[in-house]
Design brief:
heterodimer; A: 309 residues; 14 strands; B: 283 residues; 7-stranded mixed β-sheet; globular
């Protein structure tokens, strides 16, 4: 029996609940040879900044047990090239786009939101306030309630009011629930959880940090329990705020864990590097996992882990 | 670029390397010298998530069995050790062909092929292709020691000349490929240098080519996470047609680059004049 996989994030209804995670799908085009990108919920683009950006020195990645560290540093073409080439391609291809934006300061976030106003093909905006690959940890906006809320309010002020705003949260905080409260109060329609966790590995030969950027973001199945915990805690506190859950999802069963913890949709990230066709595979597996348990709709399972009995 | 499951149909030692044959019935399109393949390692629930990238050694197609892709690997880490230890019959997740292959000359000009260690893997098919176009082909192979040379006999058969160097003098000239390359190029009047091997060797080859006015085609070896252009980890500084340096992906814009376009001295850094280079502070 077919399971209804449609889901909603604020005003946005998606026909399917699996997205790509920001930074793991470029702007969709490179993955199209491996699966039909129009069949998943949406492509979340790599975070777009105002200006072109070259990123951090190499080595930019290190494999770790069931995961990886990266210190890419938001390399990208900037908003002009994105609007000229990448977004029109996604629209023409018929794929839904969640556009991730990242600024160096509060005002840059506002300017990015303004540039996206009235642009066709933006299903939602994800506000990346939690990239760990910054020179100054004080610039991780999502690590403090005040800066997280300030960025969110600025984006809310300039963004198209009909386009849902997702705040991307970092797990590297004492209490993720209070950050979630702060960004929702400042205008976020939903939450993307979680970004990578700050980590480091030392090269056993040189006995120096392995990554060019010294520290990096840890991702992959290694951080999945942290992500499930974060989704569970925030859903318990804010049950009406939609969550896009992510962190090491590799199978339909992993995706189901996030849905049960309270996510309305899920994103596949690092596992794309292992298997570029995985988003559609995982979506099919999630469908089959739900069907095998007798569910007819994904919506019936969202947050089910919180129910008694 | 097709993702498919291939059957491991051969896995044998060649010196210190393993020669793998992967057979598939999938239609993978034309494979050219310089293309690469990536394989997932460790099985379905592997804790090693990153695919391993290898230059394609050769490809053959038979109507009865399908396409056979041959790789030469060095089992130097847990992922490649897993791959090297798989029995014949194992199904392996492969993506191929990937990247931009070597550019071939339109005229039958003299070419020299330079490889370090198992960087010789793509050179046999390349030498055959160049010979079929009427090019003179000279070969320089180098390695730390004899057991780390690859393809010497095959290339001896195809090439007009072959020069071997080893660091320890166990075979051929004691020294490095860059010690003998200028002489080989002078004798053959080489117009194009094709190179595959470690970054230091590619840099030296590019500098030698620049001095003689030859074109260098270098297949780089950068650490990659995805191999398909989405992760942005395998970047290196390359000068574009507009004269500006950008951090470009070696998986999609390479692995073959013109030697005079790569900022070899700046590999591992982001040059201050690169497009989008960091200013103080910020991300």
């Amino acid at each position: 029996m077919a399971v209804d996989l449609s889901t909603t994030i604020g005003r946005l209804t998606l026909p399917a609940p699996v997205l790509t995670a920001s930074g793991c799908a470029a702007a969709g085009r490179e993955l199209d040879p491996y699966f039909d990108i129009t069949r998943i919920g949406a492509i979340t683009t790599k975070s777009i900044m105002l200006e072109p950006r070259s990123g951090r020195p190499t080595p930019r990645m290190a494999e770790t047990p069931s995961g990886m560290l990266n210190s890419i540093g938001l390399q990208g073409p900037g908003i002009d090239a994105f609007l000229e080439h990448d977004l029109p391609w996604l629209r023409q291809r018929g794929a839904r786009a969640v556009v991730s934006i990242a600024g160096n300061d509060v005002h840059e976030f506002g300017r990015l939101a303004r540039r996206l106003r009235g642009v066709e093909g933006v299903s939602a905006i994800e506000v990346n306030i939690s990239c760990p690959n910054v020179a100054n940890r004080g610039l991780v906006f999502a690590c403090q309630m005040g800066s997280a809320a300030e960025v969110m309010a600025e984006v809310r002020r300039y963004a198209d009011p009909t386009v849902p705003l997702l705040a991307k949260l970092s797990p590297d905080v004492t209490d993720i629930v209070e950050i979630a409260h702060a960004v929702v109060d400042a205008g976020a329609d939903g939450l993307s959880m979680i970004n990578t966790m700050l980590g480091m590995s030392i090269d056993p030969v040189t006995l120096r940090p392995h990554l060019g950027g010294r520290t990096g973001g840890l991702s992959g199945p290694a951080i999945r329990p942290v992500a499930v915990r974060a989704v569970y805690q925030v859903h318990a506190a804010l049950p009406h705020v939609p969550i896009v859950g992510m962190g090491g999802i590799r199978s339909g069963r992993d995706a189901l864990e996030f849905i049960a913890a309270g996510a309305s949709a899920v994103s596949v990230g690092t596992v794309i590097f292992n298997d570029p066709s995985s988003p559609l595979r995982i979506q099919q597996e999630l469908h089959d996992e739900l069907a095998a348990r007798g569910f007819t709709s994904l919506r019936d399972v969202i947050g089910i882990a919180h129910r008694e009995g | 670029m097709t993702q498919f499951r291939a059957r491991l149909a051969g896995n044998r030692a060649v010196g210190e390397y393993r020669h793998l044959v992967l057979v598939t019935s999938a239609e993978i399109g034309q494979v050219r010298p310089g293309h690469f393949a990536t394989v997932a390692v460790g099985g379905r629930d592997s804790g090693m998530l990153l695919r391993r990238a290898f230059s394609i050694h050769r490809v053959s197609t038979k109507p009865s069995t399908g396409t056979a892709i041959e790789l030469v690997i060095a089992a130097k880490g847990p992922g490649t050790q897993w791959l090297a230890s798989q029995p014949e019959g194992t199904l392996i997740d492969v993506i191929a062909p990937l990247g931009r292959p070597f550019s071939l000359p339109k005229e039958p000009v003299p070419c020299v092929l330079v490889a370090g260690g198992y960087g010789a893997a793509p050179m046999i098919a390349l030498a055959e292709e160049l010979r079929s176009r009427g090019c003179r082909v000279d070969v320089v192979l180098g390695a730390a020691t004899e057991s780390r040379l690859f393809g010497v006999l095959d290339l001896k058969r195809i090439a007009d000349s072959i020069t071997v160097t080893t660091d320890d003098g166990s075979l051929g000239v004691r020294g490095m490929v860059s010690d003998v390359l200028p002489d080989v190029m002078r004798r053959a009047d080489s117009a194009v240098v094709y190179a595959c091997g470690p970054m230091g060797m590619l840099r030296a080859v590019s500098e030698i080519a620049a001095r003689t006015g030859a074109i260098a085609q270098c297949a780089v070896e950068e650490a990659m996470a995805c191999g398909v252009g989405v992760c942005m980890t395998c970047v290196l500084p390359v000068v574009g047609d507009d004269g500006r340096t950008r951090m470009v992906r070696s998986c999609t814009e390479g692995p073959v680059f013109r030697g005079d376009r790569v900022r070899w001295d700046a590999v591992g850094t982001v040059p201050a004049d690169a497009v989008g280079a960091p200013r103080t502070g910020g991300h």
